[in-house]
Design goal:
Layout: H1 5-23, H2 34-38, H3 48-60, E1 66-74, E2 77-83, E3 93-94, H4 99-112, H5 139-143, H6 162-168, H7 175-180, H8 196-210, H9 216-235, E4 241-242, E5 256-258, H10 260-271, E6 275-276, E7 279-280, H11 284-290, E8 305-306, E9 327-331, E10 335-340, E11 345-352, H12 358-369
Antiparallel strand pairs: 1-2, 1-11, 3-5, 4-5, 6-7, 8-9, 9-10, 10-11
Helix pairs in contact: 3-12, 4-8, 8-9
C-alpha cells in the first residue's frame, strides 16, 4: 500500500497538465456568438468556424482598438463581412494614408496616357529656376518616397509635423505650395523618407497636367472628372469621394473616403493587375512598378507598402506570417487594404487603433490571413 500511494498522487497531480495538453490551450474556447458566425458565408472555402472566430477575436479585443468594418474577399467573392456598432455597408470611411495609393494610381494613368514620364524632372515651376537642385527630382523618386525634400512626418509634438502643418495649420489653404517650398535635405533619390507632403506634390502635378488654369475650381474639376472617367467609374468605386484644398489641389495624402466595399474593390483592382472584368484600366506594368521594392526601402514600393521589414527593423505588415508578395494600402489609425495575390485574398479593415495597439491588430489580421492557403 505504501508503495502505490505516491504513484497515485503523482498521477492525479499531473492530470490538469495532461488535460491541458490534450485541449491545446488548457481552457475551453469561449462560445462563438451566432452573429459572429453569421458574418461568414456558408461556404467560405476554409473552415467557417475558425474564420468566424478569428474575425470575432479582432472585434472583441479592446487591446487591438476599435474595428468598425472587416471584409474578406477570396477569389474575388466576399466570404466575410462584419461591422462595428454604428457602422454599416453604406457608411463612407476615411482612408487617411490609404489615399496615397489612389494618388499613385492617378499618376499611373497619366503616365499611361503619355502626359507624364517617370524619369524626367517634374513640372513644378518653382523648381525649374536656374540653379535650383530640386529640379533634379523625378516622378519615380516622388512615388518611391525618396525625393530628398525636408519633410518631417510624425514629429513630436504633432504640430511640428509637416503633415499636420500642411493639412491643418499654416499650409492648409495651399498644401502643395507648402510642400513644394521645402528645401532638399538629401540628394534626390538617395534617402527614403515617408512623407504625406510628397503625395500632395503628386496631386498638384496631376492638376497642372490636366489643367492650365490657376483657378481652384478649374483645377478641382479637371482632376475630379479625370478620376471619375478613368478610375472611379471603370472600377465601380461609386462611393469614393475626394477632398480638395482651397487651391483646388486633391488632398491625395489622406482625404479620400469610401464605403468599405469600395476600398475592397480598389484592392481587388490592384490584385488583378489593374484590370476589371478582363478590361485593363491601368497597365499591369504600373501595378508591378507600385509593388516593386524601392531602392532605398525594400518594405515600400511606389505608394504601396510591401510585406518586408523596414530598414530600421520595424514592420508595417506581416513578414513571416503571410506571403512575401502581399502588399497593402495603410492609413492612420489602423486602416488597411491587404492584398495577397498568391492567396487570391483581399482584406479590408477600418477602425481606430492607437500606436500601442497596432501590434495586437496586426496579429489578429495575420490570424485571418493564415486561414487561407496559397492557390
Amino acid at each position: 500500500m505504501s508503495t502505490r500511494r505516491p504513484s497515485l498522487i503523482l498521477t492525479l497531480a499531473a492530470l490538469p497538465t495532461l488535460l491541458a495538453g490534450c485541449s491545446g490551450s488548457g481552457a475551453p474556447e469561449r462560445p462563438l456568438d451566432p452573429a459572429a458566425l453569421g458574418a461568414v458565408v456558408a461556404s467560405p472555402g476554409v473552415p467557417r468556424t475558425a474564420l468566424a472566430r478569428a474575425i470575432d477575436d479582432l472585434f472583441t479585443d479592446a487591446d487591438a482598438g476599435e474595428t468598425r468594418a472587416l471584409l474578406v474577399l477570396s477569389g474575388g467573392k466576399v466570404v466575410a463581412e462584419r461591422y462595428g456598432p454604428g457602422f454599416g455597408r453604406d457608411n463612407r470611411q476615411i482612408g487617411w494614408s490609404m489615399s496615397k495609393s489612389v494618388t499613385g494610381v492617378l499618376i499611373g494613368l497619366l503616365v499611361a496616357d503619355g502626359r507624364l514620364r517617370l524619369d524626367e524632372s517634374v513640372p513644378i515651376p518653382a523648381w525649374q529656376r536656374s540653379g535650383d537642385p530640386r529640379g533634379e527630382i523625378t516622378l519615380r523618386q516622388l512615388l518611391q518616397m525618396r525625393s530628398g525634400l525636408r519633410h518631417t512626418e510624425g514629429a513630436s509634438p504633432p504640430w511640428r509635423s509637416d503633415e499636420v502643418r500642411m493639412e491643418f495649420l499654416d499650409g492648409r489653404d495651399n498644401m502643395a505650395a507648402y510642400a513644394e517650398e521645402q528645401p532638399l535635405e538629401a540628394e534626390p533619390g538617395a534617402k527614403w523618407e515617408y512623407s504625406s507632403a510628397t503625395s500632395v506634390i503628386l496631386a498638384d502635378i496631376a492638376a497642372r497636367t490636366l489643367s492650365d488654369s490657376p483657378d481652384p475650381g478649374a483645377r478641382q474639376r479637371a482632376v475630379a472628372d479625370y478620376l471619375q472617367a478613368r478610375l472611379f467609374g471603370p472600377v465601380g468605386l461609386r462611393s469614393m469621394v475626394a477632398e480638395y484644398d482651397a487651391a483646388g489641389t486633391l488632398i491625395g495624402s489622406s482625404m479620400i473616403h469610401a464605403a468599405p466595399r469600395d476600398w475592397a474593390r480598389f484592392g481587388e483592382f490592384l490584385r488583378n493587375g489593374g484590370a476589371v472584368a478582363g478590361a485593363q484600366v491601368l497597365p499591369r506594368s504600373w501595378v508591378e512598378f507600385m509593388t516593386r521594392p524601392s531602392p532605398r526601402n525594400p518594405g515600400y514600393g511606389a505608394h504601396l507598402w510591401l510585406n518586408r521589414p523596414q530598414p530600421d527593423g520595424s514592420v508595417q505588415l506581416l513578414p513571416g506570417r503571410a506571403p512575401r508578395s502581399l502588399f497593402a494600402c495603410i492609413g492612420h489609425g489602423g486602416q488597411y487594404v491587404l492584398v495577397s495575390p498568391e492567396q487570391q485574398l483581399t482584406i479590408v479593415r477600418m477602425g481606430k487603433s492607437e500606436g500601442d495597439q497596432r501590434g495586437r491588430l496586426l496579429d489578429h489580421l495575420a490570424q485571418i490571413v493564415e486561414q487561407f492557403p496559397k492557390r
